[in-house]
Design a protein that fits this description.
The protein contains 6 helices and no strands. It is mainly alpha-helical. The protein has one domain: Orthogonal Bundle (DNA polymerase, domain 1). The chain is elongated, with a radius of gyration of 18 Å.
Length: 106
């Protein structure tokens, strides 16, 4: 185990606080303080969050997508027809609608 300097420890403490705010205390309670463990865990949590966002889009219905301002049935059908998606940037829409989708999925 590598010892952390005070500055590194403070940085890790802040990262843990940021992750707790984003994902909740239960999800982050078991993360030990340390350089690698935090980096790996933070990356896993981000990957899981991205996966959940894509799952929401990939499982959406036309009616779900039509609830988003600026997306009508035609665009919703186009989004569904071209799925499933591995990244939000793969969705065949303009930047404005892509941003609305990002907001919708959280």
């Amino acid at each position: 185990m590598t010892l952390l300097s005070y500055k590194e420890w403070e940085s890790q403490k802040q990262r843990k606080k940021d992750l707790q705010e984003k994902y909740g205390e239960e999800e982050t309670a078991s993360i030990p303080m340390g350089r690698e463990s935090w980096a790996v865990h933070a990356e896993k949590m981000e990957d899981e969050a991205q996966k959940n966002k894509l799952e929401k889009i990939n499982e959406a219905t036309v009616d779900d997508l039509c609830q988003i301002k600026g997306i009508g049935k035609k665009i919703a059908k186009k989004i569904i027809e071209h799925g499933p998606y591995e990244e939000i940037s793969d969705i065949p829409v303009n930047r404005s609608i892509a941003e609305k989708l990002r907001v919708w999925v959280g």
